[in-house]
Structure formats: C-alpha cells, structure tokens
Amino acid sequence: MTYWCEQAWLPGGIARGVRIDVANGRITGVVPGSTRAGAVLSGLTLPGFANGHSHAFHRALRGRTHHERGTFWTWRARMYALASRLDPDAYYRLARGVYAEMVLGGYTSVGEFHYLHHAPGGKPYADPNAMGVALRQAAADAGIRLTLLDTCYLAGGIGVEPDEVQRRFSDGSASAWAARVAALKEDELFRVGAAIHSVRAVPADQLSLVDSARVVHVHLSEQRAENEQCLAAYGRTPTELLDDHGVLTGRLVAVHATHLTASDIHRLGAARAGACFCPTTERDLGDGIGPARALRDAGVRLSVGSDSNAVVDAFEETRALELDDRLASEERGRFTAEELLAAGTDHATVGWPEAGRLEAGAGADFVTVALDSVRTAGIEPSGVVFAASGADVRHVVVAGRDVVRDGAHQLIERPETVLAKEIEALWLS
To answer: Among 150, 307, 325, 346, which one carries the catalytic annotation?
Structure first.
C-alpha cells in the first residue's frame, strides 16, 4: 500500500510530498518530495499517538460526577458503583466504544491499566481472565493496539483488607496474580504488561513479585495522602520504597508522579524510568501538577494518557504537558513542539517500541490532521500540537490498516451511539 502525504512530520522535521510505503503492518519506505501516488492524505501526517494510561470503564463516569461540587470521594463512590455493575459482556460492549473513540481522537495504541478481574465478591469467572479477554476483543474490533497492563491489587490500603468492591480486583497474592496473567496469550495487536496498582494496594514484601518482560506501570504519588501513608508505614516515600525492592528500573513507568521530592526525581532519572502524565484526569480529580520538566531534565522518559477518559483527545493531553507546566512554573516555553510530539507518541511506554516514528522499519501507525479547520487554519504545521483537537483527525492507519477515513471509523458504525447505549444501560441496571 502506498500513501502520499501532503505534509508529514518525519524524525528530521516536517517535509512535503512524502510517500509512505507500507507492507505487512510496517513502513517499508519514506520518500519526501515525491509525486502523488496511491492514497492521498491531505493535511499533516504524524506518527500515531500512544495512550499510556487508560481505565476504559471510567468513560461511563464522564459528565456524571459533578453533583454537589463533585469531590474526589463522591467521584470514587460513583466509580465503585460502576465497577460493581460490569461483567465481561458489558465490559466488552462499553470498551468497544471507548477504544473506537480513542482511535478517532488520534491514538493508535493504548495501555489499559486493568484491575477489574473477577466477579462481584471476588469469585473468579470460569475463565479467570474473562474481563481481560473482553478488553482484548473490544480493542481488536476497534482496530487499536492494546497492551493489557494487568494490575496486581491486593489491599484496600496499607495494612487494610480489600472492601466488598475491591475484592473483585484482588487475586489474593502476587504469586496468584502472576499465575493468572501467565495464561494470557499475545497476538499481532495485543500484548501483556504488568502493573502495581500503588504502594497502598500491594504490600511491600510482594512488590518485587510483580514483573513483566515488557513494562511495569504503577500509580505513584498521585496524591499527598499516599506519600503520608507510605512514610508513616515504611519511613520511605513511595519512590524510595519501590527502589528498595528493586522495582525502579528502565521498564518502570510511574503514572501521575505528581508529588515527588527532589530525591524521588533523581532516583527515577537515574533508573531511566518513565513517567506518564494524565493532565485531564489530574485536573478533574484536583490531584495537582507534576514536575514534568524537572523529570525530563533528570532523564525520565515522558508520556501521556487519558486515564479516566473524562476527555479522549491525544492533542489535548499532549499539549497539557506544556500548558500545565506553565501554570506551575509561571513561565512559557517549557517544552518544544518536538519534545511534546515525542511524549505523545511514545509507544514504548506501553510495550510497542516499533511504533511512533515515520521511518522505514517502524510500525505503520500514523494520523493525518486537517490544516484547514477552524482550529488549525493559518497555523504553522508544527503548531498542531497546540492548536488541533481530536475533531481534526481525518485519517488513521494502525499496523498498516485504515481504521479512520475522512473522519469516520471504518470498523464500528457510529461509536457515539454504541457509547450512549451502553452507558445508559449500566446506570439503569
């Protein structure tokens, strides 16, 4: 298959008249200054974006947690109520719409931080991985790469047993979690990683047992209370505790990384770990603004995620790294456009290192954005990271397959109808 891009953002910068040749899910050639041939992509073509952190079922909370001013605790109560209503069939139907929305918003891969494992009360389904399998099928239907970040979640807090809802999340021990995860089988667009929910949800003596050949994610210092509880229980910050137990490596991705000490930042950088910021959710929950620039300067790899899916828009999350850091530092120019694009397209964060670049040999994932919408008209092409939105995505290719064409999803008809139907059914059940 051959695509001709009016403009394309290549590793060396933006070029015109770029021919991209694709075969067997890979880019086989990239030639700037080419004559038109094959499928014409008008606008600017970029590498596909990576959604480093998602809780698909949280999508059903959008626009439903603002009553009585919507504190974190009222949000959490609604989230737990929603979690208690999902079974594999309902989860599949909901996630199918969520993943379709992600592709429409510019994402070509997603890391699903998956802890909703068992039936209510904690009883395993006949297939112990039924909920994960539902997510795998939903992603396949929506045409997006999925890494199931299967999450170890054993406690309701440090030294606290899981409550009624949380029993669905727990396998009882890290070794039982590992045995269940080992039964998951990967395929062309599905990979398996690991996650530690947090230092509150996995006892310290079991942290080192949560491992993966690809990536390990962890909610880290999302709220000040997490730090306070960890210091009270262990005399260490969450980052220090992970380091003590050998978890702090180059395969680790710290999600949120909001309330860090200078020592925490140094440790994460020395380990060449990653940090995945989820700006929309961090704003939505009032968690705070993390030290993105300081982490990057320390050597930490930055990425972004949609987390609670209160907004699903790759451009919104990516530019928020810069805009939120401006608020925290009271300075402009915290990141270059190239640095923002690198963070937004870091597929290695979710175990797809071959994707995220428009060059021969890379995975054939790319997104074409209109430069003539009311949002993008008149901008410099590199300004799309500041000006464009998911509504400007016109064409999406994932692993060499056209998934979005002329702004319409090619695999799922009217995803908005799918989402409306499934979300209403969940809240009426």
So the answer is: 307
79-99 per-position pLDDT tens digit:
999 999 999 999 999 999 999
245 labelled catalytic: no
- The 10s digit of each residue's pLDDT in 108-133 is 999 999 999 999 999 999 999 999 99
Pairing of strands 301-304, 366-369: unpaired
The answer to whether the predicted template modeling score (pTM) of the entire model surpasses 0.85 is: yes
**242's tokens:** 């992970």
Helix axis angle, 337-344 relative to 314-329, nearest 10°?
A: 130
Long-range contacts at 285-290 (CB < 8 A, ≥ 24 apart)? 285/72, 285/75, 286/72, 287/222, 287/223, 287/256, 287/258, 288/223, 288/224, 288/258, 288/259, 289/258, 289/324, 289/325, 289/327, 289/328, 290/256, 290/257, 290/258, 290/259, 290/260
**Token pair recorded at residue 186:** 């990967």
Active site residue 256: yes
Catalytic residue among 117, 197, 219, 256: 256
The first and second tokens of residue 311, run together, are: 């907004």
